[in-house]
């Protein structure tokens, strides 16, 4: 009969009785007559002890040779012990060495850059394991939320002839002798799809060739994007707030211990759920900044330094709306009440984590779109398919894009966005 293995978490909950566990050596201490192994798997760690007189001679020889990250299978008796991690110890009766690891290259004194060089091994750390588990829940919760609202998941090309954001931040690709670019957003294709599906979302990689070395930027990141027919900007902000609150609830439900291990107090996130998030205009944001001694000329976009200053007095994300039209992307429409500003918003996170979401209504006026594209120096022929959407049954619609790693960084209270993704790609890092 095949032996049944349980997870370490299940063993800690069980607290007593015979169990079989398998995983990797997280820590080891060797004595003359016993070996302590702290075993890890995806669910946690547990202390185990192998007594020389309780196992065979071969098993004892293997236990004496054990090194960190060796893979093992253990069978024995669970015993409550307040000195052990989790308050439970496994007293081993049967020990199997699956693979004896070589001396592990990662030690406590290694630099951050070394850890990025060895990212394929550093993923095994409890730190990154906790983040990756939360990351998985974040992705699942985003999908669950939109599926529950009747959205369809829709996918667009990763190689595109044109752009939707800033031209200088494009990655150029040789596509069978033609010049194409890695996508910055699905938006233009999504706007075509809403005439069929009406309510759509995606979670897919996007690429920005920004020459930035800050803790907030990645060259390749995962982009959660939404496009909705018949929806205005206020309704879109409601959707964004509800979606993120659903994600936070799911993380709190499944990962309180992971959050605490990472240094994030779950109570900070619980407060965020209880409040309605403020909505202020760009003009109001400038007034707040001026009172704080930071004079920003009207028409200038808010940089990281301004966003951080603005958010000092807020403990929830804040929607900043109606940015100047002239500094916005071509597809963001002018506000009929004030043509100098666009019907758009950014959602800015507290605690210095910056912009989470950018969204807007979409310009329905084909003449305005062509005018804006020409002003930006774009080739109109690259956008003919997009302009066709305004020629055949155009409707009011809106959408937003969220950098998922930005959300993960804020939820987990990370020092750098590079730890919110398994293998970060930045201006200075393209491997492993």
Mind explaining what this structure looks like?
There is one protein chain. By secondary structure, the chain is an alpha+beta fold. The protein has 2 domains: 8-99, OB fold (Dihydrolipoamide Acetyltransferase, E2P); 116-420, 2-Layer Sandwich (BirA Bifunctional Protein, domain 2). The protein has helices spanning 8-14, 57-65, 112-117, 119-122, 126-148, 187-197, 233-254, 256-262, 266-274, 282-291, 304-310, 366-375, 384-388, 404-412, and strands at 17-30, 34-41, 44-51, 71-80, 88-99, 152-153, 159-160, 172-175, 178-182, 199-207, 220-229, 279-281, 318-321, 334-335, 338-342, 344-349, 354-361, 397-403. An 8-stranded mixed β-sheet has the order 6-10-11-18-17-16-13-12. Strands 1-2-3-5-4 form a 5-stranded mixed β-barrel. Strand 2 (34-41) and strand 3 form a beta hairpin. The chain is elongated, with a radius of gyration of 26 Å. The mean pLDDT is 95.
List the helices and strands and how they pair.
Elements (H helix, E strand, L loop, with lengths): L7 H7 L2 E14 L3 E8 L2 E8 L5 H9 L5 E10 L7 E12 L12 H6 L1 H4 L3 H23 L3 E2 L5 E2 L11 E4 L2 E5 L4 H11 L1 E9 L12 E10 L3 H22 L1 H7 L3 H9 L4 E3 H10 L12 H7 L7 E4 L12 E2 L2 E5 L1 E6 L4 E8 L4 H10 L8 H5 L8 E7 H9 L20
**Strand line-up across the major sheet:** 6-10-11-18-17-16-13-12
Number of strands: 18
Span of the ends, CA to CA? 41 Å
State the low-pLDDT regions, or none: none
Helix-strand category = alpha+beta
Summed up, the domain count is 2
CATH architecture of the largest domain: 2-Layer Sandwich
CATH superfamily membership of the largest domain: Bira Bifunctional Protein, Domain 2
Q: What is the 3D form?
A: elongated
**Mean pLDDT rating:** 95
Biggest sheet layout: 8 strands, mixed
The percentage helix is 25-40%
CATH fold title of the largest domain: BirA Bifunctional Protein, domain 2
